[in-house]
Design goal:
Blueprint: E1 4-9, E2 14-19, H1 21-27, H2 30-40, E3 55-58, E4 72-77, E5 84-89, H3 93-100, E6 104-108, E7 115-120, E8 123-128, H4 137-147, E9 155-158, H5 161-164, E10 172-174, E11 178-180, H6 185-191, E12 194-200, H7 210-226, H8 231-235, H9 242-247, H10 264-267, H11 269-275, E13 277-281, E14 291-299, E15 306-312, H12 315-321, H13 330-343, H14 347-362, H15 368-371, H16 381-392, H17 397-402, H18 405-413, E16 421-422, E17 425-426, H19 434-442, H20 448-451, H21 453-462, H22 469-488, H23 501-510, H24 517-537, H25 563-581
Parallel strand pairs: 1-6, 7-12
Antiparallel strand pairs: 1-2, 3-4, 3-6, 4-5, 7-8, 9-10, 9-12, 10-11, 13-14, 14-15, 16-17
Amino acid sequence: MNNKIMRIDLSSFKSEVYKNSEIYKEYLGGTGVATKLLFDMNIKSIDPLSPDSPIILSIGPLNGIFPISTKTIAMFKSPLTGNLGESHAGGRLFMSMYDAGISAIIITGKAPYPVFIVIKDEEVEFHRAYSIWGQSALATERILHSRVEGVGKRSIIRIGPAGEHQALMANVSVDIGRHFGRLGLGAVFGSKNLKAVVISGSKRHKLENFGKFNKVYNKIFWDAVKSPAMKKYHDLGTPQNVLPLNSINSLPTRNFSQGYFESADALSGENMSKNYLAQQIACANCPVGCIHLGVLREPFEDNIHYKSFKIPYDYEPIYAMGTNLSINRPDALLKLLYIVERAGWDVMETGVTLAWATEAFERGIIGVKETDGLVLNFGDAGTYEKVLYKMLNEENEFFKDLNNGSAFCSEKYGGKEFAINFGKNGSPGYMTGRDGFLGFLMGVRHSHLDSAGYSLDERIIKGDMNADPSAEIDLLIKEEEWRFVLNSLTICLFARKIYTEEVVLEALDAVGISMNADDLFKLGRKIHALKYRIKVDNGFDLNHLKFPDKLFDIQTGRGKMDKDVVQKMIKEYTFKIREIMKEV
């Protein structure tokens, strides 16, 4: 890495590039560097949607060099939660930044009118975006791809109308079918009048020790191609999770009312691949090809001719807009996903919010006055389509509020006990048991990818591990801190079984970075402390952490949870987090 950071000020339309080798020496790159940059900016008194609120994009030292090191880290102050915002995306973005010779980009300020940014190598251009403001996230990519010339591999990141409206659950779309999906980065873009960023580069990088690099590269490549570790991602993709989770009563259904969906076969990876798969694509520099695009065919008015759309589907969208809403037809699911993709919403938060709204309607907390005459029922895809369009157009106060997520809506209208969010972030799609939920609550991103607590639940369900609350907490913390290392290298976490401690050290050595195992684990610990300091400094309250009440009334994969045990685990976990924070 060349350790160059680009700063862009939208208020003055100025930019600069500077080198900071020390931060990369200490924090490697990716999430480590982004966390340190955000920490040093002291965002405590900054409104997430104010001009001073920063957007940080960061890549790591293995990006563009080794296979499946394909992620770019976005760091920001989340408008959804009010504290640490972090999201990861694949696609071509890391490659474009690498080719441009830029290791991190910091964007602040607010443009006086809608703009998009074009970055070519170290040069920055600012363009008026009036003609694409209001366009969908899909249309914006097509327009800019034809309008903007680039060098090398271009990446186009952009928002849809949801981001323009500063919806708290708006995402940022990246290239084809990838997203900075979680925690509201799209709203931050919209608050800055920033519609899109187009990045390309022409720089070529020389490796000092090609022989050493080639040996490690081949090991990683062939493990990715031939080992069982990546097979499921290539064959069926993450939708392969649908049936296994359903079989252990862990597939969220009808707003987490149960873990078994009677129509799981219809939405399974097997059925989607057999009857709806149109294409598989891969992020740049990845041999796996886990991105599965389904085809949706809709008739024109003559009912003879058809238009077709390719729509990315993964496990999380299938859960969020499918099983959790009791949608049992793949074509109906793909249509809902298409609307969400065009608008630029976080699909998980959208599904969780619609599920809350449906249960709130069933319980009489909201009614036809709020829904403009629509009757919400689980399984009614046609009504959900109408709701999404009304949300997109902000047709009344209630539909505008739905854009801000389940925590916001349940606080305003009621039903907090069945709004399934953790730290105000809509739940991922795992109903495996207490470790999964504890990981969502305590993880720095409130994500299933923080510590993979659901995998601990699955091991206990299968009898591969004994239940022990303290041991489970220690394993969650240890796994999260190791993932901070992988995320500093910006490894796709699907490849975590390939990028073992030994392989990581060999890869770093091949690019001239000398570290040992102890260095790696100290780094993970330090990043953990910094992230939690940011969260707590910005309002994350360790004294009032709890699961949504509904989760204690349901049967998870591990059975019904004991509330007293869970509360003791939260208390113990909190104590350990406080001890970690003392290290900053």
